[in-house]
Amino acid sequence: MPDAAASGSQETATVGVQRSIEPSALSRLTRYQTYKRRWFFLLVVSLLSCSNAMLWLSFAPVADKISHYFQLSMMEINWLSLIYLVISIPFGIVATWILDSFGLRCSTILCAWLNAIGSVIRLFPCFPFLGNYHFLYFMIGQSLCAVAQVLVVFSPAKLAALWFPEHQRATANMIATMSNPLGVLLANMGSPALVKKEEDIPLMLGLYIIPAGVACLLSSACIWESVPPTPPSVGAATSTSEPFLSGMWILLRNKAYVILALCFGGGIGAFSAFSALLEQILCVKGYSNEFSGLCGALFIVFGTIGAFVLGLYVDRTKKFIEATKIGFCLTTLAAIAFAVVSQMQGQMVWIAVVCSLFGFFGFSICPISFELAVECSYPVGEGTSTGLVFVIGQIEGVIIMVLLQALTIQRSSRGPSICQLQEDTILDWRNSMMLLAGLFCIYSCIFIIFFHTPYKRLQAEANITYRPHSAGKDVEDGALAQ
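-> structure tokens emitted (482 positions)
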């Protein structure tokens, strides 16, 4: 009996050892490769996102000329930008399902064609033989581009996860994510430069078709697969993304994810409202439209720099939570500073500095927060986890924009205002700016105090030992794992 017991114990121990060894043995048989064409895929997605953002805000910098040339009201012109936010709410959920169910290639090509077709339809009002349906054509074109937006905005995290190795994911996500505000910058600079007089509007609309068409051509002709032949990392190889509906249910029960989605989504909404209303906020204090455009450009340029620097740092240190919490605090301080200096006259230098810092700290945590959303929600699909954050941000953006405008106070005295309005009264944005600063304080406090999560994807990768192919070097396109 003792011998039998010992034999049984030995067999049990042997089985246990075999089970513990088996995953490592299997993992050592797997080689992970990176392909150079991952950078081309990233280029196409970045160009597509940049083009889409250019189409979004192409009307806003020359709204007065567009309004007069096509006989549209300013409310109609504003709707050409607001439609992006409205459409992204219902179609955002559909986009996450498409991305996780049909893959990156399908969603990218669909996005590219919607974007290109929408850009062409926007040119229809310039042809008199098509009838006097200017606003209808514009809205159809902008609506198609808005649907394309939700497809491309959700792609960076999934692209980084499936095509890039672990030490390049945050950088790849940063490049694709920040191409969207780059498009906003190009629209703010390009539209006024192209439209010196109303007769230049058809030229502007035509030129914006070019980047959309190039992105459509490249995605349709040169992207052949959603995933590489061999995964670049353990995370990509062992990804077991949940089905869409069950994944959504898991996210809604994930406390850390809900906190991140509400706080970071609120930040997205606040930034959208800030970008759309900046010119109106500053013109009532005597600042020119050119200066407002400069502040918007500084906001985006310094934000891109901040995102690049922080992306490289987090790629090496993996300190997602620490970087995001510190960035939230600094963004809140910049929001408070803007609420103060924007209500003063003759403070051009300080307003420019504050807008630069606002963008530097705020935009820098955007791609990191999307990566953090994937980390805290793993193994839910990357498209679902990042897409839901964006949808929540768009909902909060609409609410914030409505609240900011509702809190304005009409003043009968024009004072230093140089706003070109038909009404005799001007708007006082003091209460609105206090609300904006207060919202950032609330978001940052909730996030810093209550957000805690393990890095689930990194932990899953750390539990598996693997050997990169060719010492981690890229392989040529078409090479397969040995």
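Residues 1-29, 465-473, 475-482 have pLDDT under 50 and may be disordered.
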